[in-house]
Amino acid sequence: MAPVFSHGDLRLYLLSLLDEGPRHGYDIMQALSDRTGGTYTPSAGTIYPRLSKLEEEGLVTKSVDGRKTVYEITEAGRAEVAARAGELEGIQADLADSIRLIADEVRGSVREAMKSLRADLAAAARAERDSPRPPAEDADDPRVRSREQLRRADVLVGDFRSRVRADLRTHVARGGDLSESLVDALAESLDAAGREVARRLRGD
């Protein structure tokens, strides 16, 4: 996926967040996630070194509030935000473009997954048609056919669940970001598939 922030932009964006008011580290990470629609959730290893650098430059200060470290912008920091207001507007515009691109990539990934699922379903249907019927049961009995198809459906749903779950767990285990928008897109696609199954069961 394309990066959300270009080189150096995150530094100025952090200053702009602190220009709105003091924040602790987790609050800053949550604000970044909220303002990017869940497409960018930075790690502590990304945020805290940048905050330390801003402190070294005299642009922010930090204080301890209980178990939390609170960061606050200095007058020098406010002056930099004001002087670079034009750049900040450009960052905001680029950020909106990046979010749209990432959302498009997520939707494309979900569409590809659904295409693969439909291909698997079609292949399974062909294999079922080509396979011999069990001699022990009356293949013309609707109840027998329904039980066979129910077993097929159970296998297909179980296989899809296992594959998607393994892909998601592997992605997260490797340090990948699992965004809220991707999970939302997956939920929408599964809901659409469920509605289609229900519609066809009703014979609509």
Describe the structure.
With 204 residues, this protein is mainly alpha-helical. Helix 5 packs parallel to helix 7 (180-202). It has helices at residues 9-19, 25-35, 44-56, 75-83, 85-130, 142-173, 180-202, and strands at 23-24, 60-65, 68-73. The mean pLDDT is 81. It contains 7 helices and 3 strands, in the order αβααββαααα. The chain has 2 domains: 9-96, Arc Repressor Mutant, subunit A; 107-202, no CATH class. A hairpin with a 2-residue loop joins strand 2 (60-65) and strand 3.
Structural features:
three-stranded antiparallel β-sheet, 2 domains, Arc Repressor Mutant, subunit A, 71% helix, mainly alpha, 204 residues
Ordered list of secondary-structure elements with their pairings:
Blueprint: H1 9-19, E1 23-24, H2 25-35, H3 44-56, E2 60-65, E3 68-73, H4 75-83, H5 85-130, H6 142-173, H7 180-202
- Give Rg in angstroms: 26 Å
Measured by DSSP, the beta-strand proportion falls in: 5-15%
Query: Biggest β-sheet, characterized?
Result: 3 strands, antiparallel
Spans of at least 5 consecutive residues whose pLDDT stays below 50 are: none
The helix-strand sequence is: HEHHEEHHHH
- The tally of strands reads 3
In helices, the fraction of residues equals over 70%
* Global mean pLDDT: 81
Structural class: mainly alpha
Task: Report the total helices.
Answer: 7
Shape: elongated
Give the total of domains: 2
Whole-Å distance between the termini? 40 Å
